[in-house]
Amino acid sequence: MKNFKYIVVFLIGLPFFAVGQTVLTLEEAIAITLENNFDLRIAKNEVKINEENVSLGNAGMLPRVNGVVTNNNTILNTKQTQSNGNEIEIDGAKNLNLNYGVGLEWTIFDGFSMFARHNQLKEIQKLGETELKLNVLAKVSEVYDTYYILVNQQHLIRSLDSIIAVSEFRLKTAQTRFTIGKASKLEVLNAEVDYNADVSAKIRLKEQYAISKIALNQLLVRPSETDFTVTDVILIDETLKLTDLLGLAQEQNPELQIQYINKKIQEYELKQVKAARYPSLSLSTGYNFIRSESPFGFITQTSGQNFNYGFTASINIFDGFNQNRNERTSKIQLENTQLQIDRQKQAVNAQISSFYQSYLSNLALLEMEQKNEKIARQNLEITLDKFKIGTISPVEFRTAQVNYANAVIRLTNAELLTKQTEISLKEIAGNLSF
Predict the structure, then answer these.
(1) Is pLDDT above 50 for 312?
(2) What DSSP string runs through 263-299?
(3) Is residue 340 part of a domain?
(4) Which of 191, 318, 363, 421 could covalently link to 171 via disulfide, CB atoms 3.0 to 4.6 Å apart?
(5) Is 165 within the bounds of a domain?
(6) Is residue 433 part of a domain?
(7) Burial class (CB in 10 A: 0-12, 13-18, 19+), 172
């Protein structure tokens, strides 16, 4: 038993790796999520759709060519009386009118609306790409958060193992003392209650750990029962600066970038509305084949071809002041997009400033809890030595044990909270690594 405290210290520093379990690194978790996650795959397909829509034809710049076939047939019974008095009666007479050919229509000028539309389609493509980045950042942030929750829970389980080992030692000591008549049954019962409480706490924590694993497997689109363990280190970036984060956010925050793109889209929308003030010019041409058959008259069959061409020019002279109304409405919508940009800037700055204050506080708490955990561990080791030689009571020993357990919990929670605020800051700044 003289080496027991060294066993406890060893348990405290022992990585929580189960034999046979696959170690899933954070990088692997992110890579699997980016490849498999359903939301991201849907967002990627939306980007592909927007890419397909950026075309000259969709913008109205290319001509439209149509092939047309018209075939009209008539069957009738008729009786004709000619000028010379002769009568002709035909049953089941068939008339045929066949017309087929190709036609081309091409709007060659529409007040530059087609060019504005083409540029607008490009901005819509950029919008889809930026929305994809926003989704990626959100999912990666969720993976980060869930992963480090698992690391935190592994730390707590490992620490509980050392606490349980101490409680088990105390229980066996009490039972031995009771056997030789140096302790009462009450001491044994108290030790057993404390031991059971520690085991119960571990059972509850392992349940939370299992649920967190299921949540991460869901993000990775893997079977919920897939077993794994995570790495055992939480590295805190202590170099974040408020001014740098605010500057990065103005350039990289996806939600802010979306507002910028929406403004561009609305600017091109206004250009399309203004284009209605200009004249519109369209060209048209076609080539047709004609054939007709009739059993009546002097000409019973006709066939031919024709080529047609022309143009159409139009200009809006008066439309009940709708043009002016449409332009005013579009300008107001453009003004709203600028207001949305200003609002988003303020929201982003407020979010970063708020999280940064939490980040600084958590760093200070983390440093304090690291020192406190060392003190609590040292206190537990001294108390354990005194307990073994019988110079302190079981109550004092349990108090030192509980103090150390609480110190470990506060330290691991401080590590997790600090990492979570770091992740949130980088996500808002659009600078989260993945």
Answers:
(1) yes
(2) HHHHHHHHHHHHGGGS-EEEEEEEEEEEEEE-SSSS-
(3) yes
(4) 191
(5) yes
(6) no
(7) middle
Residue found by looking up tokens 């439309």 in the block: 319
Q: What is the pTM of this model?
A: 0.83
- Look at residue 170 and give its three-state secondary structure: helix
Structural domain count of the chain: 1
Give the 3-state secondary structure of residue 96: strand
* pLDDT at residue 295 in the model: 67
Cβ burial, residue 52 (10 Å; 0-12/13-18/19+): exposed
Give residue 367's domain range. 4-66+111-428
Strands (E), 82-172: 87-109
Q: Please, are residues 193 and 228 in contact by the beta-carbon 8 Å criterion?
A: no
Q: Tally Cβ neighbours within 10 Å of residue 59.
A: 19
Distance CA(339)–CA(346), nearest Å, equals 11
Q: Give the position of tokens 């001509």.
A: 63
246-268 per-residue burial string, b: 16 or more CB within 10 A, e: under 16: bebbeebbbbbbbbbbbbbbbbb
Asked if residue 76 belongs to a domain, the reply is no
Pairing of strands 23-24, 229-230: parallel
Going by DSSP bridges, is the β-strand pair 280-293/87-109 parallel, antiparallel, or unpaired?
A: antiparallel
Phi, then psi, of 24 in degrees rounded to 5: -95, 115
Q: Rg (Cα) of the chain, in Å, rounded?
A: 40
Which whole number is the average pLDDT over 233-256? 94
Written as six digits, the tokens of 5 are: 């405290």
Q: What is the pLDDT of residue 9?
A: 44
Q: What is the CATH number of the domain that holds 134?
A: 1.20.1600.10
What's the whole-number mean pLDDT along residues 319-345? 96
- 296: tokens are 């009546």
Q: What percent of the chain has pLDDT over 90?
A: 76
